[in-house]
């Protein structure tokens, strides 16, 4: 990630912050001088991240939070004095065949992936309005809006909803100078990717990506930093696909 944006004086909240894409996003904003509030459900991983960033001289603190709990989200946002960029990156996606999806699984998937985006944005809006503007970013996915993946019907539905949220929230919040955008990652080399459990399929997909590799967390973080920066100040209601060309019509990865 060579580009360095200036986020000095800004406060950034990142969910799903303690590993993979979320960690790369935290690191990118911290390098740019932002004060970062890293939110995650895993206290040990979160503590490691915070300690690493503090050792580098970055201003990062952690908050353990279950994003399926709207009340906890409201309490977290109510306790902040400043927020300039909100990044909802956390996601829940246990690989489950369609016929085995039960109400509890679907409810938690929608609560974490989609519902939390509503409550985080609603909670941030008073801060944004007081400050004269803000930026909301969401990690969506190509799965759902553009392609399908076996065992991820619940996840795909939630991410299609995220894209709908981005467009409509951008329209409604523009009056408050709040921009809303997202990034749609393709297959990214993270620990969570291994949880999908089909390494042969993952390898085949990677081989078919036009750019010849899987994505790295830093690739997604770079797109987030761009969208949060002043360079993107006239962009809202959009999602940026970062997939190495995998969803192009003639890509072997899409066949």
From TrEMBL:
| CDD domains assigned to the protein according to its UniProt record, in alphabetical order | SDR_c
| Similarity field | Belongs to the short-chain dehydrogenases/reductases (SDR) family.
Descriptive protein name: SDR family oxidoreductase
* Coiled coil start-end: none
- Quote the NCBIfam families the UniProt record gives: PRK12826.1-4
Q: Which SUPFAM superfamilies match?
A: NAD(P)-binding Rossmann-fold domains
Domain Ketoreductase residues, every copy? 10-186
Native organism is: Pseudomonas peradeniyensis
Q: What is the lineage of its organism?
A: Bacteria, Pseudomonadati, Pseudomonadota, Gammaproteobacteria, Pseudomonadales
Keywords (alphabetical) are:
Oxidoreductase
Instruction: Cite the InterPro entries for this sequence.
Output: KR_dom, NAD(P)-bd_dom_sf, Sc_DH/Rdtase_CS, SDR_DHRS6-like, SDR_fam
Pfam families xrefs: adh_short_C2 (PF13561)
């Amino acid at each position: 990630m060579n580009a360095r944006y200036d986020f000095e004086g800004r406060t950034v909240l990142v969910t799903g912050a303690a590993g993979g894409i979320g960690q790369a996003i935290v690191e990118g904003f911290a390098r740019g001088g932002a004060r970062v509030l890293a939110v995650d459900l895993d206290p040990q991983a979160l503590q490691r991240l915070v300690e690493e960033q503090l050792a580098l001289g970055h201003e990062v603190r952690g908050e353990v939070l279950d994003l399926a709990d709207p009340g906890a989200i409201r309490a977290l946002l109510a306790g902040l004095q400043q927020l300039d960029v909100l990044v909802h990156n956390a996601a829940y996606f246990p690989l489950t065949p369609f016929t085995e999806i039960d109400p509890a699984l679907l409810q938690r998937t929608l609560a974490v992936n989609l519902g939390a985006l509503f409550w985080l944005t609603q909670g941030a809006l008073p801060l944004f309005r007081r400050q004269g503007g803000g930026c909301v970013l969401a990690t969506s996915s190509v799965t759902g809006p553009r392609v399908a993946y076996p065992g991820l019907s619940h996840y795909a539905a939630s991410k299609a909803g995220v894209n709908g949220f981005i467009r409509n929230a951008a329209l409604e919040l523009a009056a408050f100078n709040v921009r809303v955008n997202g990034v749609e990652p393709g297959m990214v080399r993270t620990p969570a990717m291994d949880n999908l459990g089909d390494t042969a399929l993952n390898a085949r997909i990677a081989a078919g990506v036009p750019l010849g590799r899987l994505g790295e967390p830093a690739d997604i973080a770079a797109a987030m930093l761009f969208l949060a920066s002043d360079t993107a100040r006239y962009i809202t209601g959009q999602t940026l696909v970062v997939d190495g060309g995998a969803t192009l019509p003639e890509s072997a990865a899409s066949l």
